[in-house]
Design a protein that fits this description.
This protein is α+β, with helices and mostly antiparallel strands. It has one domain. The protein has 4 helices and 10 strands, in the order H-E-E-E-E-E-E-E-E-H-E-H-E-H. The strands form 4 sheets. Strands 1-2-6-7 form a 4-stranded antiparallel sheet.
Length: 201
């Protein structure tokens, strides 16, 4: 482009793009990314996306609801289902697994039975102190941020197949060492591959 004093700018003859120019443009737009060694729990990784899974474990959970629902559960420790976590520029999404093993692309997922999640698994961050990137090094920080924040509200109608509903499920599990009851999870038609790609179902 040429600028003329007192006149409109004009375009000059086009020049073919070089590979070096395209690479430098991509680096400047995306900030570049260093190669990382991926641990076995990572399922997918892109420049601004990371997906990983966690096996069943026990975690402390915090509840802070204006109606005092689940107040008796606040600060107690619970068995957790195996989970799949997905971070991208839009934030954190979580789904549950019905098998306590590393999932493959075709495995179908389940609703993660937690407050603060929307129907597509997106976490309403509220009091959560979220890390600012999607790197391997940030995985444990995302998990800690999720569990150390307060669960405040239900965003969807049904979170579990447990006959006592949400409060019944977590009341039964509070401070117990037994495994999470996988049969209480609500199965979805969404596969891991669809979850990684950001497809709802």
């Amino acid at each position: 482009m040429t600028l003329h004093k007192g006149g409109p700018p004009t375009l000059e003859a086009a020049q073919p793009l070089t590979l070096g120019f395209v690479e430098s443009l991509v680096r400047s737009l995306w900030g570049g990314s260093l190669a990382e060694v991926l641990p076995a729990n990572v399922l997918a990784k892109g420049d601004r996306l990371i997906v990983w899974w966690t096996p069943s474990c026990r975690r402390q959970m915090f509840y802070d609801n204006a109606e005092q629902r689940a107040a008796s559960l606040n600060g107690r420790t619970f068995p957790q289902p195996p989970l799949v976590w997905r971070i991208d520029d839009a934030g954190l999404k979580i789904r549950a697994l019905r098998e306590n093993k590393r999932p493959d692309a075709s495995m179908t997922l389940a609703v993660a039975p937690f407050w603060n999640l929307s129907d597509d698994g997106r976490v309403c961050t509220g009091t959560m102190r979220s890390p600012d990137n999607a790197s391997v090094a940030s995985i444990s920080k995302w998990e800690h941020a999720f569990y150390e924040s307060a669960f405040t509200h239900a965003n969807v109608g049904r979170l579990t197949r447990h006959k006592g509903g949400f409060e019944g499920l977590w009341s039964e599990l509070a401070d117990k060492r037994k495994p999470f009851p996988i049969a209480t999870l609500i199965q979805l038609p969404q596969t891991l591959a669809q979850f990684v790609r950001g497809e709802r179902r």
